Amino acid sequence: MELAAALKALILGTLEGFTEYLPVSSTGHLLLAEHILGLGFHDDKFDKTFAVLIQLGSILALLLVYFRRLLTIFIALPTSPQARNFTLGVLIAFLPAAVIGAVLHGFIKDVLFNPLIVCVALIVGGFILLVVDVLPLRQRYDDATAFPLSMYFKIGLLQCLAMIPGVSRSGATIVGAMALGADKRAAAEFSFFLAMPTMAGAFAYDLFKNYKTLDTSDAGLIAIGFAAAFVSGLFVVKGLLTFVSRHGFATFAWWRILVGSAGLAALWVWG
Hints:
The chain is mostly helical and 271 residues long. The chain has one domain. It has helices at 3-19, 26-35, 44-53, 55-76, 81-103, 105-112, 115-134, 149-159, 169-179, 184-210, 216-247, 250-270. Helix 1 (3-19) packs antiparallel against helix 2, helix 5 (81-103) runs parallel beside helix 8 (149-159) and helix 9 (169-179) runs antiparallel to helix 10 (184-210). It is globular, with a radius of gyration of 18 Å. It holds the Pfam family BacA. Its EC number is 3.6.1.27.
């Protein structure tokens, strides 16, 4: 394994972990870093696969932080209607993305993984996040485990917008949950819960589709990216809910607009 490739994997893994649970689009950031900053591995197919597979590190960071709460919910399933409602709700919210992602997997990877689309989606999503952050929305739900089943399903439909790189999976679920009556903290927390099956499904599907093309050096790069995503993801998961409760989402909205605008400028200058 070359040192330069290992360093790229480390940087990209760290970037993945820091951006995965923020409403800024981790996939969009990785794609722009590879295309504009030259941090790719000069293999378009592997770049796209790498971006998905290192998400496992972020997933495990999330599971570690929420292990006790998830265990409590699991133990309560036989006796608690709320625990059963929440578990079913997560599965219902996950279903639209699972179906559409499987059907359109090739189109998403071959057509939508485009830096121009990413930049536009980042900017548009940033302005949407700014608007939603200040709207006087009616906040009816402050517990991510107690939404109605119909609300879980609607959030799952909105999550499908995140198949466009740059939209952001967490951004789509957070905006959707807030628009449907969740407060900011509950909306952000449900984006965590929904991330678990969604990201795990994307990881498993991409690994199944591409495992025959990966070699030993690829596995080493993915391992480095995985470890970096785990550490940085752990940092974000532990601090995001507190930050959002105090400051809202404006910081992330302006970051999206800044990155998207800088990306468009770079594409205009360098192509």
